[in-house]
Amino acid sequence: MVAIKRVIDPYVKVRVKNDGSGVETNNVKMAMNPFCEIAVEEAVRLKEAGTVEEVVVVSVGETSCQEQLRTALALGADRAIHIEAETGLEPLTVAKVLQSVMEKEQPGLVLMGKQSIDSDNNQVAQMLSALTGRPQGTFASNVTIDGDTVTVTREVDGGLESLQLMLPAIISTDLRLNEPRYASLPNIMKAKKKPMEQLTLADFSVDASRRQEVLNVAPPPERQGGVRVASVSELVDKLKNEAKVI
Amino acid sequence: MATLIIAEHNNLSLSPDTLKTINAAMALSSSVSVLVAGDNCRSVADEVSKVAGVEQVLLANNTVYEHQLAENLSALVVEVAGQQYSHILAPATTFGKNLMPRVAALLDVGQLSDVIQIKSEDTVIRPVYAGNALAEVRSNDPIKVITIRSAAFDLAEIQPEQSAPVSELDIVIANDMAQFVSRQAVESERPELAAARVVVSGGRGLGNSDSFALVEKLADKLGGAIGASRAAVDAGFVSNDLQVGQTGKIVAPELYIAVGISGAIQHLAGMKDSKVIVAINNDPDAPIFQIADYGLVGDLFELLP
């Protein structure tokens, strides 16, 4: 099972709305969260290697999420589950919905991105692991399944760490796990015929009440434009005498 | 109400990120306890007891906590937290990011990630969209679980004459679902990236890993740490734990020198709070120049040596 999210395209420079309510998402290019693409790719590779039988992609969000689910199907996932809900659900709510999906689907492994590049929370995988009482392998840069365990190499501050987890486990992907493929046109066409189950938040007995309120969203303070220096000696002089940092 | 801070350490010494988290907690009007969980980590508890502002140290010293894995450590934190703590904090390092959401979910509360400012008991400021927007968020949860971006806070002081009481806990929770296999640390004599006063970073412009020696030489001369852009890491010039950016480390040194780095949004997210930014690039239109205090246009291979 792979959980994916629709976000603003990572190469778009976001604009904060003037009323402080959030960032502008109208008429902005959307895409699959880059960490989620890596999770889909890893699942498809595990299937191609014969370790995994079926890849199910799940997304919780507005109807437009189905575009990203179709993309995942074109990349090699077998079927999709879309859970209709408003955008911007809190990570704990998403984790609870995914917990219910796990109970129904009984996946041997759950893959998802380590963080979404809009809210930058880095929470859902860990929360899902807690709710299901399963082990977690966060920030994975290598995943090897061996019988009923999985060995995960994690990117941690100061280097790498390897853990052996009992399956089913929840793994969140780091950027260096793999390089996602592009969907070919024939695969995009085939993806249109793959099954997509449509559910709504109401189908789950999940408490979706908000615990956090966003009071204001503001642009970060702007840095003042700097100066161009002509030579190394001028730079060193400025750093020594003006900025006093060396 | 009281605050519980989960200490990050390597069983020998406390991480500087924990000192910054303790300092961040001073914005909350409550007493501060620090939980030190590990194996043979008495020295860490003693170290914590001398940190300004710490009132109590809780020590869970057992082999089951040796590698501080999230599965049993989260259960320990929840058991310790009970009803007594209104705030639970940890640094937003890979340690804190791994552990804290698990703690939050077990307590059935949300989490506030990577907080850069604590405005009040329930309201914080945190960056979103790779630091391109700052969100002011109020949590209505009974317990606030928070990770602290260390680059945004100063170190708490060490007071050698202080000695907060250390109480030993005898809660032993085994972890039968996850097992530590190995750890590969990157050896370096340079200061740690996240805590360094000076950071010299190299990007794709360096061309190959041999040229990275130029960056290393400059860093050594300035007593600084070395960093890298994602392009430099992906191209294999340096190991990934040196990556600065949204997906790597977030730094805010006094001086940041970007060499051969164009300044993509994801990279800027990791360094734009540095006090002074110097850019050295042969492309006068590189976005890095828009945020650099001092820019030098030219060939880095001529300028660096």
Explained architecture:
Chain A has 246 residues and is of the alpha/beta class. Chain A is built from six helices and 13 strands. Chain A has a nine-stranded mixed β-sheet, sandwiched between helices. A two-stranded antiparallel ribbon of chain A has the order 2-3. In chain A, β7 and β8 form a beta hairpin. In chain A, α2 packs across α5 and α3 (91-105) packs across α4. Chain A is globular. Chain A starts with a strand and ends in a 5-residue tail after the last helix. In chain B, α1 (16-25) links the parallel β1 and β2 (31-38). The model of chain B has no long low-confidence stretch (mean pLDDT 91). Chain B has a seven-stranded parallel β-sheet with strand order 5-9-4-1-2-3-10, with helices on both faces. In chain B, strands 13-12-14-15-16 form a five-stranded parallel β-sheet. Chain B has a three-stranded antiparallel β-sheet with strand order 6-7-8, with no helix packed on it. At the A-B interface, α3, α4, β7, β8 and β9 of A face α3, α4, β5, β7 and β8 of B.
Short description:
The complex is a heterodimer of chains A (246) and B (305). Chain A is 27% helix and 29% strand. By secondary structure, chain A is α/β, with parallel strands linked by helices.
Helical residues, percent of chain A? 25-40%
Biggest interface between protein chains, with counts per chain? A-B, 77 and 83 residues
Roughly how many Å apart are the termini of chain A?
52 Å
Number of strands of chain B: 16
Instruction: For the largest sheet of chain A, list the strands in their spatial order.
Output: 9-8-7-10-6-1-4-5-11
Oligomer: heterodimer
Q: Gap between N and C termini of chain B, in Å?
A: 56 Å
Strand order, largest beta sheet of chain B: 5-9-4-1-2-3-10
Gyration radius of chain B, to the nearest Å? Answer: 20 Å
The chain-level mean pLDDT of chain A equals: 93
